[in-house]
Specification:
single chain; about 325 residues; alpha/beta; Rossmann fold; UDP-galactose 4-epimerase, domain 1; 6-stranded parallel beta sheet; 3-stranded parallel beta sheet; 12 helices; about 45% helix; globular; binds serine
Length: about 325
């Protein structure tokens, strides 16, 4: 990896992956690409930024020709709940965008990181210790795109030699940029509300266990996988990775250690609850640990402490 394009750069993962890549590979070697015409200030100040729509192959090809990168982190995507509201748009962005990225990577010789998700599993997948290789029959359009994307990425590797790699991310928790319309978003929203209002109404019910990860681990995973020795990779698209598994009431208890008066109530959203009920509670990520030495650094306790510290500073020290 010498020169890198990040699509979806202004999103939840991109806004933290771009600075991490720039620190490592230099600002001029990391091109942030998003659909916004005016992104965050630091994106323009600290490196190159280009506006592009991944569903338009011509605009994407122009970026390939202009910037001459060798690796793409392709992050543009609609999340699960928002995708369910508009399945046609989800297919267009999530599959259409990926197809364009793969086709151009084949033509211009680029490596591709494409994130998959716990959403690539479905109601008949084993939910505890979900194996790396198991049943994948998701019931959401988001999941249909993720499974299709995994297969398409593997196909481009086996048939065209495109160096495609990916991870199945769990719910990602971060303070810099909010996720947009996912099922695991409660685990991010809860921190903002806990600090601002000392109360939160959760849209998933008590006892809903899901895999989760703090953003620094998620960013490191993407970079480490793309730097991994290809001869050690038996899998490619995509590796199970996880850092913690918890239910809403367990996260509440952790937050109450720092904000004792924090109150949690529940108003279940049936759409997101049924999505969550079809996803793993805890994935087995031993293939990632064995093949490229994946290891998370943040537990539920570490993540909660760091989120509260950083978010309360960001929000003006209201604790
Ligand atoms: N966090 C995503 C979502 O909830 C899953 O990958 O949609």
């Amino acid at each position: 990896m010498k020169r890198i394009l990040v699509t979806g750069a202004t999103g939840q993962i991109g806004s933290e992956l771009v600075p991490a890549l720039r620190k490592k590979y230099g600002g001029d070697n990391v091109i942030a690409a998003g659909h916004r015409k005016t992104p965050q200030k630091d994106f323009i100040e600290e490196g190159l930024y280009t506006t592009l729509d991944v569903t338009e192959i011509e605009s994407l090809e122009k970026a390939f020709q202009e910037y001459r990168f060798d690796t793409i982190f392709h992050l543009s995507s609609l999340l699960s709940a928002v995708a369910e509201e508009n399945p046609q748009a989800a297919w267009k962005v999530n599959m259409g965008g990926l197809y364009n990225v793969l086709e151009l990577s084949r033509k211009y010789g680029c490596a591709v990181f494409s994130p998959s998700s716990i959403g690539a599993f479905g109601p008949n997948t084993p939910r505890n210790n979900t194996p790396q290789d198991t049943i994948q029959r998701p019931s959401t359009i988001y999941g249909v795109c993720k499974v299709s994307g995994e297969l398409l990425c593997d196909y481009y590797f086996t048939h065209y030699g495109v160096d495609t790699r990916g991870v199945r991310y769990p719910g990602l928790i971060s303070y810099k940029t909010l996720p947009g319309g996912g099922t695991t978003d409660y685990a991010v929203d809860i921190f903002f509300r806990a600090i601002q209002e000392k109360s939160y109404t959760c849209f998933l019910q008590k006892g809903t266990y899901l895999d989760m990860m703090y953003m620094p681990d998620a960013v490191r995973a993407a970079i480490e996988l793309m730097e991994a020795d290809p001869s050690q990779l038996k899998h490619r698209n995509a590796f199970n990775i996880t850092a913690m598994s918890f239910a809403p009431e367990e996260l509440t208890a952790q937050i109450q250690k720092y904000i004792p008066g924090f109150l949690m109530s529940y108003q279940v959203d049936p759409v997101r609850q049924s999505i969550a009920d079809s996803w793993p509670r805890h994935m087995d990520d031993s293939a990632a640990r064995d093949e490229w030495s994946w290891k998370p650094q943040y537990s539920l306790e570490d993540m909660t402490k760091d989120m509260i510290d950083r978010l309360s500073k960001k929000m003006g020290g209201t604790l």
